[in-house]
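Run log, item B.
One chain of 420 residues. Sequence copied directly from the ordering sheet:
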Amino acid sequence: MINSEHLLKTLGPGILIACAAIGGSHLVWATRAGAEYGWTLLGLVLLANFLKFPFFYFGQHYTASTGESLLSGYKRQGPIYLKTFIAINLLTGSINIAAVGMLTASLSMPFLGFLNLELTHLTILIFLILSGILYFGNYAVLDRLSKWIILILTACTILAVVLALLNQNPTTAIVTKTEINPYTLASLAFIVSLLGWMPAPIDLSTWSSLWMHSREAQTQHKASPKEVVIDFSIGYGITTILACLFLALGALTLFETGAEIPQSGIQFSKQFIELYTSSIGAFAKPIIIIAAFFTMLSTTLTCLDGYPRSLATSFLLLKDASSTTNPVKKKHYSLMLVIYALVASLILLLFVKNLMSLLSFAATVAFLSSPILAWINLKVMTGSNVSPKHQPATWIKIISYIGIAFFTIISFLFICNKIF
């Protein structure tokens, strides 16, 4: 029987993954899926969450089973696996932070508009504030903030969907799959972007593993595999439900308008709020603004922690050839935090007018790397250092193989479509 006190000390890393996932994938891609295709992509959204769940689960389960981080498991398999992760992290990390940061800033205008700052400057200010919170508050502040953010976000999103349902036009609310077909080569680029960030890039599975060590240091409790299942299930369950809710918001409020999604950050946020409030009602505007802002704030906060933490750990593991347990030191983490914030700010200055292109590139790279990282995660979880009783059940392995095959086939089709 699981001790309730121990369980409370375990809860955290799974919820943080939910915070990291809901920004780009939910607010942008799930909403766009509903806005452009109605309900027809709901099945694909659920499939993406289903096929990726083993690989995110492995991140926490491996640490609970072995005491090592998932990145240490990468190193056990050989330096090439760790170097592959570093390459993907370097390619996408700053871009993702820049993109989600810009969206956060654009959605913060109702609160911070009185500062009269340009979008890029406001984004950089948010980076400074969040980086300061992470530097001085460490994991404890991140953990506490994430739980409040998820609570507020979930409540506001559910309320927004209920209001949208109450105000929908019954003659246009339901669209059959025969009327709009997204499963064509013309829509493949959008499908790949949706899958890449739904519910999140697979490399984020390493974050929850590292957060488990931070949670253990905070509470002095080492989570058991059974306790981890509950923490993971809560976080991943919230992520999946919210993905469906955001798609529903897009389908119920934006689909029938036929409006195009703007490419710039400030216009995206303005139209996002205006279309929702015009469909649901002006009285719902504060709810929509709060839900959208907290969605992006949670993602920006966790990305600013996760990317620097995982990269700093990876470099430390590579530096010490004999170690698989190198904990990240604050000075290394702080250095990476500063570097990521600076590079993300530079990217903003160069791509501020092309938000959706930036998001599409990051999401596409995330998907194309999915088969590789998924295979590595499975290989690590079935390694000889994991006791047989903690290795994945047969049904989880089957889902893993199906997921890897699915990601590989779609990636192959996408690359061939681009080349030919």
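Observations after the first pass:
- Residues 173-178 have pLDDT under 50 and may be disordered.
- The CA atoms of residues 348 and 394 lie 45 Å apart.
Flagged for discussion on Thursday.
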